Amino acid sequence: MTGNAGRGAVPRDPRGVRGDGDEEHITASVFINDDEPGLHDDYARWLERLAPHEPLAQYRHNDTGEDNGDAHLKRQVMGREVVVAVSGGKLDFGPWEQIFYGEFDGRRRKRVLVKIIGE
Amino acid sequence: MTGNAGRGAVPRDPRGVRGDGDEEHITASVFINDDEPGLHDDYARWLERLAPHEPLAQYRHNDTGEDNGDAHLKRQVMGREVVVAVSGGKLDFGPWEQIFYGEFDGRRRKRVLVKIIGE
Amino acid sequence: MTGNAGRGAVPRDPRGVRGDGDEEHITASVFINDDEPGLHDDYARWLERLAPHEPLAQYRHNDTGEDNGDAHLKRQVMGREVVVAVSGGKLDFGPWEQIFYGEFDGRRRKRVLVKIIGE
Q1: Whether the complex's predicted ipTM surpasses the cut of 0.85
Q2: Nearest to A69 by CA among A47, A90, A54
Q3: In order along chain B (119 residues), what is the average pLDDT of each group of 10 residues?
């Protein structure tokens, strides 16, 4: 999600502010973890094991003519939105935390919403 | 969660408002995905594969006399609460997003809490 | 998370307030469920089945010299943060809900952030 401009309002005061990013589609995720390529490869292989893309006929959702039944399941494991505290005007992350966008289907244009609220 | 009246406060101003719905029980979920019956059948079968209801003796939680050990696990996969941005006075969803209540046990009366906050 | 002091701001008014706790590390979770020891044993065994710690070589993340590839996956299943409504100045939980800290690695000191916001 690096470089995402978002559509969030600008906070008037950084104290107590909280931002969240939600992925507005149903076959993708916004999640927070480490920016380590091996780990992201592990996520992809693990999700494929938990919810294999094929055979397509294993998902009733694919009876609609779509082929992304697995992507709807993968998105539930990885989550839809994150809520991140803002302290002193900055996202209050742990040492290695970064926000990622996870795409499990890839067929459509997607948008990510960032909303910032506070006192 | 269609038709849920909730207990949320009414926002005074739609700008920057955010609402969330949380499921207040431990064997059920509130989640956001597509309103497609095949998909919901897929979720049910997939969760049963990840955390089978039987044999009951595989869960130490069921040693308490309950039989819903699996439901506590399914709820973690699907999530407890959702946080949804409100823009222009409306829930700011993606094209197909809807909020659902997922019930994995079914023994008890449940309530869903909806809280709306904003500037 | 019992006894956690947090770093949250004090709300000025309990109406409409919402608090959240997020776990600021990438191999641990904050989650809400029942305080039943058998259930927590079930979670541990279930997560080990979904994302086994060994063999270490199954995770590309472990090629970095770490051995916690599985912990990054377990954290995604259990979640990073929780958002809890505050009503009448109290965390508005369901009958059995409690907040827990789930540790899947254990190597490092961790902190949990609690942020309370409201009108």
Answers
A1: no
A2: A54
A3: 29 41 80 96 98 98 96 97 93 92 85 84
Residue C79 near chain A (CB below 8 Å): yes
CATH number of A21-114: 2.60.120.460
Residue spans of the domains in chain C: they are 21-114
Q: Among all chains, which residue has been given the structure tokens 């952030």? A: C113
- A78, A29 contact by CB (below 8 A): yes
Q: Which residues of A touch B95 (CB under 8 A)?
A: 24-25
CB-based contact C41:B60 (threshold 8 Å): yes
The sign of the torsion formed by the CA atoms of B113, B94, A19, B14 equals negative
Residue C48 tokens read as 């080990």
Which candidate, C2, C11, C8, C29, places its Cα nearest to that of C114? C8
The per-residue pLDDT for range C27-68, each reduced to its tens digit, is 999 999 999 999 999 999 999 999 999 999 999 999 999 999
First-to-last CA distance in chain B? 26
Nearest-by-Cβ selection for C9 from A16, A38, A83? A16
Contact residues, chain B, for C82 at CB < 8 Å: 80-81
Query: Are B83 and A83 within 8 A, CB to CB?
Result: yes
**In residues, how long is chain C?**
119
Q: Which of B15, B39, B47, B93 to mutate to test the interface with A (most CBs of A within 10 A)?
A: B39
pTM of the complete model: 0.83
Token pair 């929780």: residue? C82
**In the structure encoding, which two tokens stand for residue A86, read together?**
């803002």
